[in-house]
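Cross-posting from the modeling subforum.

Setting up a comparison between two proteins and wanted a second pair of eyes on the formatting. Protein 1 (sequence, then structure tokens):
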Amino acid sequence: MDNFIPAIQGQLATLLAYPFDPSRRIYLAYLLGSLAIVLIWMAAAVARRDSVMAKQLWQRLVSPAIWWHRSARLDYQLMVINPALRLLLLGLFSISLVPVALATESFLADFLGDSNLTWSSVQVTAAYTLTLFILDDFTRFLLHYLMHKVPWLWSIHRLHHSAEVMTPFTVYRIHPIESLLYSLRMVLTQGLVLGLFFFGFGMNLSVWEIAGANVFTYLFNLAGANLRHSHLWISWGPWLERLFISPAQHQIHHSSDPVHFDRNMGAFLAIWDGLFGSLVLARGQIVHAYGLHRSKPSPHMSLWQAYYEPCLHCGRAIGGSLKAMINRLRAPTLSLKPLRDLT
């Protein structure tokens, strides 16, 4: 307990520093980048004499009905309280990047012998930076995909999808268990990539960075990442949206329309959705509302519900899976419902 209280104080100090930390989505430069894109879209609408579109963008940008909606207020509470709970969980399930990297390097050395690669430092840095970004994005997509397909994982992730309005702070609307899973994913991914490059090029590695963040991650966050959790419909167009997830595509992902369920699960790159058959382009799509269901109220109306209901739902999902396994042993066929019907 003596160490826990200072740790919480440190987490709160870190929270206050989010707008000045390039590793955080609400870093000021990223927010300003998103604002610049909105202003460009508004200027383009005015140039087309589409005053309705320009007015709609502005109203949705500043609407108190969105920013102070009950759902948004829960997002703010979770952003403040989750760091302490995440700290506690990481203390119970701690894993370090360095042992993963060293184990990976040792395995490759034992299996393949010495590496004879002689790349220049520029080539190594470029390859390391790009590999780290691509594999991090893929494993982020893969975990997200599993959270939509595995019942007990969906039980945890559905808290994020119960948001009825979206702001840049909705990115923090996640259960501590989901936060733990993403932290473990990050450590394993970065550890494996680091170990691979330790094996290939030794331990003197560096990453191309802007303000301390991976250059690719920085640029993607600067290019409207905060608009994904918003009511501002901004599409990159059909060609680019096959490569990169646009704000509109992520808003489709959050749609309460069943036709949009389990679509556009990528973080930055859209190619993974293309490979897994979950890609939907923004053109021709309409998002009427966000949330889990069109007709049912959110199961997460309070902070307490946001924490305990996913655990309760998870227990039911695990029980349902065990029952299904037993039934599978007894009968040759099963009728499985979509995950969002498991309410």
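Protein 2 (same layout):
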Amino acid sequence: MTKTKTPDKRTIRKERTKEAIKKAALEIARKEGWNGVTIRKIAGRIDYTAPIVYEHFRNKDDLYFHLVHEGFTRLKEETFSEVEGKGSPEEKFLAIAEVRFWFAVRNPTLHHMMFDAENPDWQKIELAKSMVSIMQMVDKLVDEISGQPEKRMDYIFNMICLIKGYTFFTNHLLNTSTKMSRHFPADEDELHKLYTDAIRRFISSISKK
């Protein structure tokens, strides 16, 4: 029987430092945007020197890549985990939409970096690789729900607009520092209900008559 190797203290310390760096970067980005993130600011926030940060990430772009890559990996894993065990195509479709909503609400800065920021070419490639399995599942579900594969692209375009619109405005409304949140106060549960109602209406609108 093979024994599982226990990580030594040095390895554990390095992993904790790496996680602290990523957390600090996201905290700074939430307040100042990604352009406001610097290695020096990250180091100051975690009480280390800049060279320590460079031991874990080559530069700011490398850090961005790791954050986005891990974000897409988590989103994919959470999506397939949530869909597993669901019965009908409608239930599976709703589960996919639910995962995206809660991922956006719980990780607003990371979600923005993944989907709403100006994406460099490498990130577009990462997005395509990470989302292809989810989109293949969505394609199949849309065909099963609608019975109209020839209209699949129209339906998916509408779905993407619906999800991106709701997640974008939900995060703005929940961010108390934005003007929008002051003019349109709303809570998480209320916004979630509006979102799920909209998704259910969309499913109903494309369902076989």
